[in-house]
Amino acid sequence: MAIILLLLAVLIIGILLGVPIFAAMGLSTLVHFIDTGRESTLIILNQRIFNGVTSFTFLAVPMFILAGEIMVRGKLIDRLLDVARAFVGHMRGGLAQVNILSSVFFAGISGSGQADIAAMGSTVVPAMVKDGYPRGYAAAITAQSATLSPTLPPSIVMVVYGAVFGVPVGALFAAGVSVGAFMAVCYMILAYVMARKYSLPLHPRANLRQVWVALRAGLAPLGMPAIILIGIFGGIFTTVEAAAVAVLYALIMTLLVYRSIRITEMGPILVSSAITSAAVLIISGVGLSFSYIVAIQHIPQAVLGALTTVSQSPFVIVSLILIVLLIAGMFVGRTANILLFGPIIIPIFYQLGFSPVHTALIIIIVLGVGHLTPPVGGALLTACLIGRCSMPDILKYMWPMIILEVVLAVIILMIPAISETLPAFFELGGVGL
């Protein structure tokens, strides 16, 4: 028990001192090496890091990042906005609905919440403000809709989660489709209610010709998520192969079809994608080494034992874990939190009867709530920066959205079918213990 406490103390102190998450996790694993005093322990830890960054599944990470970068640099985001505007722009608060639906489309390209906020914030927020929407509301709806990106395929968070914790990525993608669709509909209902409350603008409905023109122009960016989902769910190719096809598709669309990118621009795109990929992979590698230490030190069993002294109720135990995740989500990115807490809490969820896919979606959704919560929610601060508004301005409109996020997290927790139905239907695994 003393070694476990020392390991956790080193980890927490490192984070509080501002040490990068991957470095804090790496330093904490050295406690185990010092405890054993064997050179073989250090060799095993290094092998775990190497295995983490060379896993075949992890090949999907840099390729999905590259595909998203190419599509964004190719300026195809406007086509997604036109499609969303044609379908939901006529609703009360139409641009808010467009913001949400565009995030659903964009999630199928980028797989990153921060990229979503940057793209939507720089494009939709000025349009909403110009149309008479409060700037704080425009930024708030952008932050909320961006939480869909890590839920919908090709989510980078899900690829990392599946690779590190042995959950089929295809099953996570399938669960993400149903959960993401459910959340998007709830977001749009709340946006409609808030639009009526604040008397936000109402625009005429697009006619059939306008819808057709928008759809035809938007086929290129919409084609990428369609190919990924059909290919994986139909058993045509694996997640890694889907990522490679996504890169090829993005190159064809931007270099040959629309010519929105010149070949000379590929250098900066590759560099930017490589830097982002390296950041994800290094923390994933160290996270796998950290997971090994957590397992052999029996930390999940110790934590569960400590929680059962508080209450024997599974509901209370899960609630305490989710509160910790929510608070952690305010300060640290989703991927880092998953690798940090996953080795400890995932076995506890399994012991309580949750399936791997259901557990993954619960953790991902709850961490997203923290991203929207003050004082330092990552999505909240980014939206303030991109939307050029103050924290009080955005919080005026954010509270109903945060409450909705909490309610949705509870619903997804209590109803496993929301996340498990599609993986079970396509026989992708991950829905049984």
From TrEMBL:
TM segments?
49-72, 159-192, 213-236, 242-258, 270-295, 315-333, 338-354, 360-386, 398-418
Q: Where would one find the signal peptide in this protein?
A: none
How does it sit in the bilayer? Multi-pass membrane protein
- Do the record's keywords include Acetylation? no
Family matches, as InterPro entries: DctM (IPR010656), TRAP_DctM (IPR004681)
A Pfam family this chain is assigned to: DctM
Q: Where, subcellularly, is it found?
A: Cell inner membrane
Q: Which terms are listed as keywords in the entry?
A: Cell inner membrane, Cell membrane, Membrane, Transmembrane, Transmembrane helix, Transport
Ranges for the TRAP C4-dicarboxylate transport system permease DctM subunit domain?
8-418
Q: Quick check: keyword Cell membrane in the entry?
A: yes
The family note in this entry says: Belongs to the TRAP transporter large permease family.
* Chain's role: Part of the tripartite ATP-independent periplasmic (TRAP) transport system.
Q: Which PANTHER family match?
A: SIALIC ACID TRAP TRANSPORTER PERMEASE PROTEIN SIAT-RELATED (PTHR33362), TRAP TRANSPORTER LARGE PERMEASE PROTEIN (PTHR33362:SF2)
How does it associate, per the subunit comment? Answer: The complex comprises the extracytoplasmic solute receptor protein and the two transmembrane proteins.
Name of the molecule in the record: TRAP transporter large permease protein
